[in-house]
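Supplementary notes for students who missed Thursday's class. We covered one full example, reproduced here. Read the sequence, then the structure, then the short commentary at the end.
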Amino acid sequence: MSPRGRLGLFEGCGVELEYMIVDRETLDVRPLADELLRDAAGRIVQEARRGRLRWSNELVLHVIELKTHGPTRSLAGLAAAFGGEIRRIHELLEPHSAMLMPTGMHPWMDPLRETRLWPHGNRAIYEAYDRIFGCAGHGWSNLQSIHLNLPFRGDEQFGRLHAAVRLVLPILPALAASTPVVEGRLTGLMDNRLEVYRRNQAKIPSVAGRVIPEPVFSRQAYRRNVLHPMYRDIAPHDSGGLLQEEWLNSRGAIARFDRHTIEIRLLDVQETPAADVAIVAAVLGTLRLLVRERWACWAEQCAWEIDPLEQIFLATLRDGDAARLDNERYLAAFGVDRAPCSAGRLWAHLIEAVLETDPEAREYRHALEHILERGVLARRLTRALADGVDRARLAAVYRDVCDCLLNGRLFTGAAETPAPAHRPAPGRRARGSEGSRRR
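Structure (token representation):
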């Protein structure tokens, strides 16, 4: 595609949702992705086109990915489109006595025993990952995410978008954490998927870095500081150069210069596409306001080093929406003039601004209000498991979550009344009109 034909900032986006295939009776994982794709396409394929969406394989056989067919110009009706494909998959899995399960991790999967890699097509890539890192682990075979792909056109747009994305990444678990349970136990973390994700390639630290990307804002600097060190470090383990591609990068957001996009990877899958797309709308709207310099100019956004952002990320990974944010400089970057502030209150403040300025996001107001009022999905799951985490209780709660996925219902949890609502954090006036500080 010529540069003229490429999408620019916020002219579209790509959305990807990953789901586990599980047994209808036991809810154990079932390695059926290749059979599902064969049933859909008439032969085993790695991808099946389904109108506005596509289905595709992932690393392991018990995961299927649903994604937009290329960038979508609008989020309108997107949750309904995903919901229709989920129901079709449910029909195709019925003869196998299987179905889909949402959330970012299976609550009792044993990856050492149950991992089966995709054995077809591009399996050489998966086999290389397995040989180098060992993919029979939670950070590889038991994590399901929302991927959000955002286009840019040229170096300036890349730099503006990357600066905004780096600022938002640390608080994404405070909106999307859905993984409080690992191997049948509550760990005390709201986002165990990200805890295992940030450690799964420790053998070669440059591949994932510190999850929060380095402060680089041009293609040349990104190649020099991120891509080249990663390719150099993996080369002794990858003599054929199979993995020395941009997608090797496992930071929380990665630049795909081959596609002219930045891909955000820190969002857990939710209980229903309505919640997934609502979160996408909130993140998109917040990034749009940052790029327009609603609260802080671009130079201020670029000035953030990794350390303070990583500290905030680890706090929200642990505590989700209840994380205490006391970095006054960080809060000021989003127009909040009083610290401390919970991450949930910060998101309430941001979502209020998004709903005021982005008519498209209003389709998902109900789901966003549900998250703000009742807590992130991980908190609702924890509340539902308050009376015990034995297998029977886990199965009952996660069967309810599976029903939410099939029927487009938001998960409430066991509590009769919602958790206290997160009121918007006290803010300050925007720094001039939107875009007035653009250079």
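Commentary. The longest helix spans residues 273-291. Confidence is low (pLDDT under 50) at residues 429-439. If anything here is unclear, bring it to office hours.
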